[in-house]
Amino acid sequence: MWEGKKKFSYFCVDYGKGKVIYMYVTHTFEPVCDEKSRILILGTFPSVKSRENAFYYGHPQNRFWKVLAALLDENIPSSIEEKKKMLLKHGIAIWDVISSCDIEGSSDSSIRNVTANDIAGLLAASRIEKIYGNGDKACRLYDKFCKEKTKKEIIRLPSTSPANAAFSMEKLLRSWQVVKESDTETEKK
User: For a disulfide at 145, which of 72, 100, 116, 175, Cβ 3.0-4.6 Å?
Assistant: First the structure.
């Protein structure tokens, strides 16, 4: 199985004003993936809360875990182990497009100086068939930094971020239904 390396992060401070202007941050946790994974869901980069929790979609108002649990007819997982178990049970891998970047807080719109994760390496070492992007930014970053190496299309899904207030939970569930359909397809194989 593919394994990445452990990484570190640090930030820069504007000492004149005493506040963080931007942070250069490196992704510190590994993708969730195993030999049964057929679906990959990519985010952009972990939020501040996710970095604090050392796991994906850690902000309590991010609807990622609620959406997946509803689609997969599972209870909403609370612990990291429960989240991993639910994903892997359904052949779902998750990771982020970005390995390191400059970022202000959790703002995807502030991302610059991107280094991408080795998505092509993950795909080569797995049986992933479909790639979904959690939000437009993840898809645009994938297209810019990864698509040429992977030769695979990414399917855009609306972001589960609380910043995407235009999408109610019901609207997210309708849009994300394609993940459930992919899960059903992989179960038949």
Answer: 116
Among residues 152, 158, 146, 62, which one has the least CA distance to residue 106?
62
Task: Please determine, for residue 85, whether its predicted confidence score (pLDDT) is greater than 70.
Answer: yes
31-97+117-188 has CATH 3.40.50.720 classification: no
How confident is the model over 25-61, as pLDDT tens digits? 788 889 999 999 999 999 998 888 888 888 999 988 9
Q: How far apart are CA 35 and CA 51, in angstroms?
A: 26
Beta pairing, strands 10-14 & 19-26:
antiparallel
The stretch 125-143 carries a mean pLDDT of: 96
CA 126/CA 175 separation, integer angstroms: 26
Q: Pairing relation of β-strands 130-134 and 19-26?
A: unpaired
**Alpha-carbon span 18 to 49, nearest angstrom:** 22
